[in-house]
Amino acid sequence: MRAFIIGRFQPFHKGHVEIIKKILSENEYVVIGIGSAQLSHTLMNPFTAGERYLMILNTLEQSEISNYYIVPIEDVNSNPMWVAHVESLTPPFRRVYTNNPLVKRLFYEKNYEVLSSPMFNRNEWTGTKIRNKMINNQNWEDTVPETVYNIIRDLDGVNRLRDLSKTDEDPI
Ligand code: ATP
Ligand code: MG
């Protein structure tokens, strides 16, 4: 069976690695959709699709995983058309791993097999918490693979995020 997972991967963290390994233990290959691909340089979406692509590619290569496709997917402003949009960009798959209720519903209505995916160490391995730690100068390095840490360091990602968190208003 071929499977699909979609995330924004802001950034690609250890929970993502674990779920991809689990999917590959049950499927022939995995299609990894990089969601909201058009977004970058915002607090919720600091990294570009290309940067996220590199995080996933380097990490999976390093882990000697090769049965995957990475596909950046921009948002469309129409939920009924979204699955067709994904299909137009990806190699074929019949199974979808997600916990997102809307993604579940949309694929279910198009007769895909939709599975809930387990969460690993969700207390620490969440994009939102990792981005907050970066901004607040807390230890985040061990929540991402070393390959991802190196990419974020090389593109000055933490300072990018801190700059994005500033305001142009004068302090009162
Ligand atoms: P954010 O807080 O920015 O939403 P996130 O950690 O939820 O980040 P996403 O990019 O939204 O990451 O998630 C993409 C996919 O990865 C989702 O299907 C989600 O269920 C899965 N996922 C995220 N974190 C984990 C984890 N710790 N273990 C297993 N799967 C995870
Ligand atoms: Mg999420």
General description of the model:
The structure is a single chain. This protein has 172 residues and is α/β, with parallel strands linked by helices. It has a single domain (2-164), classed as HUPs (Rossmann fold, 3-Layer(aba) Sandwich). It is built from seven helices and five strands, in the order βαβαβαβαβααα. The protein has helices at residues 14-26, 49-62, 79-89, 101-109, 127-135, 146-154, 157-164; strands at residues 2-7, 29-34, 68-72, 95-97, 113-115. The protein has a five-stranded parallel beta sheet with strand order 3-2-1-4-5, sandwiched between helices. α1 (14-26) links the parallel β1 (2-7) and β2 (29-34). The longest helix has 14 residues, at 49-62. Bound molecules: adenosine-5'-triphosphate (ATP) and magnesium ion.
Query: Helix coverage percent of residues?
Result: 40-55%
Number of domains: 1
Low-confidence stretches: none
Helix and strand run? EHEHEHEHEHHH
What CATH architecture label applies? 3-Layer(aba) Sandwich
Profile the largest sheet. Answer: 5 strands, parallel
Strand percent estimate: 5-15%
Structural class by SSE content: alpha/beta
CATH superfamily: HUPs
Strand tally: 5
CATH level-3 fold name: Rossmann fold
Overall form: globular
> Helix segment count?
7
* Biggest sheet, spatial arrangement of strands: 3-2-1-4-5
Tell me which ligands are bound: adenosine-5'-triphosphate, magnesium ion
